């Protein structure tokens, strides 16, 4: 995992090559521009690359998942982290910690994933090992354990020194593929200075690990307090392994994937320091008692085989022809074939056990983030165990539910635009394509505009929607037309309002009569769904069916606000009185409550909320002032300007509406030298002036 362009894909390529997985070295053609990276992402990256690959290294079986670094695909990263046991964070040694590095690091913290840092691009001009390590310490607030030091930096980078075993690893400069390198112990005669430096580094490492690990501290203080040099490398390695698992520190290695240096020691470090599946403790597993529990974390559509679902097996085992139960979809399906994503061909296998990643054929209804178990009864049994445990600890039951559905939180889409097929006849094809793409990528939402009947795509960013458009053309052969991008606004109210409504209809011989009085007021805290309360007099004799009907009515009224027809959030609704004539259908109750709330919202003081983005722009000194001037025009709010070697990093907030098409503008302003990263911060109220401008634009155009 890494920031865009730190060299994840190249590192992955090399790893696969050295493990004998691929025959030839993949080439990313000096891909150090973001655009190359995108073209390559299109040509190759949407294949199996970001899914899983299985390979062997020195007797270990490793499942590798390469994650995208682009901010529009945060969900993709989140999804992969969910099923991993450990991670390698790749850094560009000349840039250190960048915007996206922080994002993926936070995600890994959230899922409590042990990780190793790999400082890549040590051969790049401006590469600085110390700067990169310092930025890990400062910005990620992590404790770096230096297990290697580079020999030379930038143009002079030749190899690395292994601090743990005091050996130097030099790669043969004439070798094409970096397969042959020599490992020599450091000697007093040949490298006195280097040896002195490494001994100091090793002693510092030993002290650092001893501070974090008591067992190791006892060992060091007991047997080896006089002379750290006598401490065997194996003892230090097991201690580093424990500290990595405890996530109190991160091992740091370095190299240059493009120049084929330092990748083999990285593989050794993965097997040595990152956890095996047995060493990860997932809380929800204890409820399953060895029954099957797996998570579908990726769906790909294969022309011949239909949907291929990637599963991470947490417990139990999977066999082919096995019937499984999908908790999220509440349906039972059969796995027709099981494949291992091995090398360039998928190998068919009869069964797979816990800890593995499987590729299944035959699951037609499973989508990304679904939990798969052996049967409905197994899930219920697990749920009961969790509830019993919950009662002991006085936890609420929804906690138990949450442990079972170990899915992925899907961020709310912030951009949307209409998509049109080339002709009405092609609409069913477009619907099919979108349905398949949604199963692969849950952060893409598709909805129908009730007024115009158009299909609307909702996504995470311009690039996201562009790629979806591109894939519909490439994979489904449909030329579609995208409307202009629009921003997903929300609405709320500022005061408290009351309304009453009566619905009286006679259908056939049944009279439906509902009278309702409710109050809507603004909430202090942020909540997407309305908070619903009932007055004591109403709550007493309300049946479950009526209660559900009321809540459905209130929720549906909140989907389309009075100003822009955007969802209404941060409202609390209190039902003061409700009279229902016997025999009234639930649909009528819903309709009446919904109409009454719409009435109340129309009367209230209304406020539009707009998505506010965190923006980070990295720019050279010369272009700083035009970039700042441009941001000021975009209602930007600059928080701070940091210095990162020769660059300035501008950090601030800017409304999403003002940042459409920013990438082209930024490229023009800075002659292509700046990069930027965006992510949703929160929704904030628009000021009255901007709000009235927006409303007059909307009413003028519609």
Concise description?
By secondary structure, the protein is of the alpha+beta class.
Structure description:
Strands 15-14-20-11-12-19-16-17 form an eight-stranded antiparallel sheet. With 702 residues, the protein is of the alpha+beta class. The chain has five domains: 8-181 and 250-273, P-loop containing nucleotide triphosphate hydrolases (Rossmann fold, 3-Layer(aba) Sandwich); 283-391, Beta Barrel (Elongation Factor Tu (Ef-tu), domain 3); 415-488, Elongation Factor G (Translational Gtpase), domain 3 (Alpha-Beta Plaits, 2-Layer Sandwich), CATH 3.30.70; 491-604, 2-Layer Sandwich (Ribosomal Protein S5, domain 2); 609-699, Alpha-Beta Plaits. The model is unreliable at 29-42, 44-49 and 394-405 (pLDDT under 50). Helix 3 (74-82) runs parallel beside helix 4 (99-110), helix 6 packs across helix 7 (214-222) and helix 6 (192-212) packs across helix 8. A hairpin with a 6-residue loop joins strand 16 and strand 17. The relative contact order is 0.08. It catalyses: GTP + H2O = GDP + phosphate + H(+). Belongs to the TRAFAC class translation factor GTPase superfamily. Classic translation factor GTPase family. EF-G/EF-2 subfamily. It comes from Tursiops truncatus (Atlantic bottle-nosed dolphin).
Query: Nearest-angstrom radius of gyration?
Result: 29 Å
Q: How does the overall form come out from the CA principal axes?
A: globular
Q: Care to count the β-strands?
A: 34
CATH architect. name of the largest domain: 3-Layer(aba) Sandwich
N-to-C span: 44 Å
């Amino acid at each position: 995992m890494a920031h865009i362009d730190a060299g994840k894909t190249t590192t992955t390529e090399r790893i696969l090559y050295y493990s004998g997985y691929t025959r030839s070295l993949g080439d990313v053609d000096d891909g150090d521009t973001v655009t190359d990276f995108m073209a390559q992402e299109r040509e190759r990256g949407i294949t199996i690359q970001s899914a899983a690959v299985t390979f062997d290294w020195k007797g270990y079986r490793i499942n590798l998942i390469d994650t995208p670094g682009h901010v529009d695909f945060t969900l993709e990263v989140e999804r992969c982290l969910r099923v991993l046991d450990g991670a390698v964070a790749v850094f560009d040694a000349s840039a250190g910690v960048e915007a996206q590095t922080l994002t993926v690091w936070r995600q890994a913290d959230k899922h409590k994933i042990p990780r190793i840092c790999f400082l890549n691009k040590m051969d790049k001009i401006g590469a600085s090992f110390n700067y990169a390590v310092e930025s890990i310490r400062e910005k990620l607030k992590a404790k770096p354990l230096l297990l290697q030091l580079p020999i030379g930096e930038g143009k002079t980078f030749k190899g690395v020194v292994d601090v743990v075993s005091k050996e130097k690893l030099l790669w043969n400069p004439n070798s094409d593929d970096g397969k042959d390198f020599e490992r020599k112990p450091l000697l007093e005669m040949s490298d006195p200075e280097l040896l002195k430096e490494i001994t100091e580094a090793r002693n510092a490492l030993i002290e650092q690990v001893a501070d974090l690990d008591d067992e190791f501290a006892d060992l060091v203080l007991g047997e080896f307090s006089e002379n750290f040099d006598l401490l065997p490398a194996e003892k230090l390695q097991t201690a580093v392994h424990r500290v990595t698992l405890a996530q109190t520190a991160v091992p740091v290695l370095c190299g240059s994937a493009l120049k084929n240096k330092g990748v083999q020691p990285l593989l050794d470090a993965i097997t040595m320091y990152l956890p095996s599946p047995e060493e990860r403790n997932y809380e929800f597993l204890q409820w399953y008692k060895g029954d099957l529990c797996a998570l579908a974390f990726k769906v790909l559509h294969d022309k011949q085989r239909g949907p291929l679902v990637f599963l991470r097996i947490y417990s139990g085992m999977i066999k082919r022809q096995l019937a499984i139960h999908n908790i999220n979809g509440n349906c039972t399906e059969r796995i027709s074939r099981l494949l291992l994503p091995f090398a360039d061909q998928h190998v068919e296998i009869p069964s797979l056990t816990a800890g593995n990643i499987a590729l299944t054929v035959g699951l037609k209804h499973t989508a990304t983030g679904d939990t798969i178990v052996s049967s409905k009864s197994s899930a219920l049994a697990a749920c009961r165990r969790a509830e019993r445990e919950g009662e002991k600890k006085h936890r609420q039951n929804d906690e138990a539910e949450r442990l079972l559905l170990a899915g992925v939180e899907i961020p709310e889409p912030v951009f949307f635009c209409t998509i049109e097929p080339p002709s009405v006849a092609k609409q069913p094809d477009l619907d099919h394509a979108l349905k398949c793409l949604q199963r692969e990528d849950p952060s893409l939402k598709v909805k129908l505009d009730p007024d115009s009947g158009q299909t609307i795509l909702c996504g995470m960013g311009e690039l996201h929607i562009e790629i979806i458009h591109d894939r519909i053309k490439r994979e489904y052969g449909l030329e579609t037309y995208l409307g202009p991008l629009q921003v997903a606004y929300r609405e709320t109210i500022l005061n408290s309002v009351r309304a009453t409504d009566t619905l009286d209809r006679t259908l056939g011989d049944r009279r439906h009569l509902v009278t309702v009085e409710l109050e809507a007021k603004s909430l202090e805290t942020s909540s997407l769904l309305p908070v619903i309360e009932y007055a004591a007099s109403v709550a007493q004799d309300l049946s479950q069916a009526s209660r559900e009907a009321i809540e459905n009515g209130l929720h549906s009224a909140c989907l389309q606000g009075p100003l822009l027809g955007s969802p209404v959030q941060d409202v609390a609704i209190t039902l003061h009185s409700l009279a229902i004539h016997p025999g009234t259908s639930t649909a009528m109750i819903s309709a009446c409550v919904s109409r009454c709330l719409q009435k109340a919202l129309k009367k209230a003081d209304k406020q539009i909320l707009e998505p506010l983005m965190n923006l980070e722009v990295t720019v050279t000194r010369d272009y700083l002032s035009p970039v700042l001037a441009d941001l000021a025009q975009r209602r930007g709010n600059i928080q701070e300007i940091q210095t990162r070697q020769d660059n300035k990093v501008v950090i601030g907030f800017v409304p999403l509406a003002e940042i459409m098409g920013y990438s082209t503008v930024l490229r023009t302003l800075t002659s292509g030298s700046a990069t930027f990263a965006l992510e949703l911060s929160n929704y904030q109220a628009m000021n009255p002036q901007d709000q009235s401008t927006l409303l007059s634009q909307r009413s003028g155009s519609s």
